[in-house]
Design goal:
The structure is a single chain. With 187 residues, this protein is mainly β. It has one domain. It has an eight-stranded antiparallel β-barrel. The longest helix has 20 residues. The termini are far apart.
């Protein structure tokens, strides 16, 4: 009995002292770095056709087998598309866009994708830096805006938006050239 009282006493002692050693610790210090704003302009060249496409379908809903559009509802695409300084296919490549696009609109007249894409720069002033987009993109609208949710390198902690215009679209095969005007807020 005496042994149980001793064990019980130690248990109460351990439970009483645990909160002292298990406190949550947090310290916040003000950031001394000024925020920067960067404006970018480039063209994304997306190719679904040909022998070397930059976007390929990796999954497709079995509910849309009779949909003959190049990008049917429920389709998931992996992309690795070049970023170029101009709309011409021969213009200088400055980076690439890699990620996923999901066709999320059942109404083909209001074609919409949800995109998660990392825009990485491989040359120039921002070589080695990238920003990430995770947003809804209503493709059939003339001017549209997508959200920038992060970045790395010179765009660390980026946020902002990209305004997109379709410079070229082949509705038969899905090939497109997109004009991006990007505003980034970063440190």
């Amino acid at each position: 009995m005496e042994g149980m009282i001793t064990v019980f006493g130690w248990a109460i002692f351990c439970l009483a002292i645990a909160p002292v050693y298990g406190e949550y610790y947090s310290q916040t210090t003000p950031a001394a770095v000024a925020e920067k704003v960067t404006q970018l302009h480039f063209f994304l060249h997306s190719t679904l056709s040909g022998e070397n496409p930059s976007a390929v379908m990796v999954a497709r809903s079995n509910l849309t087998n009779d949909d003959d559009s190049p990008i049917p509802f429920g389709s998931l695409f992996a992309i690795d598309s070049p970023l170029r300084v101009g709309p011409e296919p021969t213009s200088t490549v400055i980076g690439n866009a890699q990620g996923l696009e999901l066709s999320s609109s059942q109404d083909s007249s209001k074609f919409t994708i949800v995109m998660y894409i990392d825009f990485a720069f491989t040359s120039g002033k921002f070589n080695g830096s990238s920003f990430s987009v995770f947003s809804r993109n209503p493709v059939t609208e003339g001017d549209r805006e997508v959200a920038i949710v992060g970045g790395r390198g010179q765009f660390r902690l980026a946020r902002g938006f990209a305004e997109i215009k379709t410079s070229f679209l082949n509705a038969t095969n899905g090939d497109a050239i997109l004009d991006y005007n990007v505003t980034l807020y970063h440190f």
